[in-house]
């Protein structure tokens, strides 16, 4: 019998934000695969390190970090082939996914290669977006707000339209687009209504008004939230970005 | 010393989708409050019933179900006052929240009444939106998709604009707005690219093409997802709505 492929969301950073289901499947799996940079630690692996055991086979999927984190076809082909060999032998394989597997994640590249041939299950996770509103102490969206989620690499026109239309906006994958996105928010007159967040739920999380950010780039997983009409509340955030 | 108010997300329905943190805080709290209808079972309470113990004090917050689930001021005033008396005595109080507490949830009504006077922490949860993509086996959004989340009670113009602009849309709180929203999706030529979901992750979940839905109303927590360009994939969903 073939093994099952599980894509499990490991959440935004705090290991305790794994779901009980993800924890059960992770600790019972023979093989654990995860995205990893060329050098340094895998973020997804670091989140669940305390739950892993020495008998598990680990498969780091090394995605070269370029200017963009693009889907590197040959990397995923190779990883899918290695995972398939374990599934063929009857072993379950867990793929660790930062946040939620199917919310702008890279798990789709493995899923599309393997789901046709093997049983596959996705276990949803806490996205950093949901965690952002928790650490900010303010709803991401409420009542009948229209919430638009915009990947920061989007072109200027897309971003300008979204800034005009939505009641609340979340820019994800801010990274090297910080300066450009901040400029567009400023031109829309919304800087005073924008909060900047990085590494939420981790010890070194940063939360501050966008106006207090003085760097041109940010970590890949940083977020800008725009709350129309929230000037007073944004202004009350600590400008040093330290946790509240 | 005052107790702490916790708003914890209990997820979309499957009890195992609680986070480990939510589980720890829930099982350690003396007092557990939760939204409940005038008659019948509280959905949030039913999700975590197996984790509760007989020594915990329970506070049902009975929000009358009218045409809309509106914030009933006196109900929340009364609940906040009852919760405050427990916090004053030093007991921690957990408020159960369907999905995520700060993603279109009602926890904000208690938070705004109590967070100024008591320590308060929000534990994020799996929203039914994230769970929808997991049960569908398809990313909610990918790469640089702009994703717009539209509460179904929004007016026609807001919905029409969103249907034009976004790459992917999620209509939440569909309920009695099903027929109107389905009509607007049809006028935009997007019916063949829309999926309908209700009670995701529960045994009686339903997933089907929007075109196969023949009722005018839906449960409050139902969802319509529109994926532009996904005709073939939507057409392959089972039209009887049974779990895949």
What does this protein structure show overall?
The structure is a homodimer of 244-residue chains. With 244 residues, chain A is α/β, with parallel strands linked by helices. The first copy, chain A, is 30% helix and 20% strand. Chain A folds into two domains: 5-123, Tetrapyrrole methylase, N-terminal domain (Cobalt-precorrin-4 Transmethylase, domain 1, 3-Layer(aba) Sandwich); 128-235, Tetrapyrrole methylase, C-terminal domain (Methyltransferase, Cobalt-precorrin-4 Transmethylase, Domain 2, 2-Layer Sandwich), CATH 3.30.950. Chain A has eight helices and ten strands. Chain A has a five-stranded parallel β-sheet with strand order 3-2-4-1-5, with helices on both faces. In chain A, helix 3 packs across helix 4 (107-114) and helix 6 (156-165) packs across helix 7 (178-187). Chains A and B meet through helix 1, strand 5, helix 5, strand 6 and helix 6 of A and helix 1, strand 5, helix 5, strand 6 and helix 6 of B. Strand 6 of chain A pairs antiparallel with strand 6 (147-151) of chain B, so a sheet runs across the interface. Chains A, B: This is Precorrin-2 C(20)-methyltransferase.
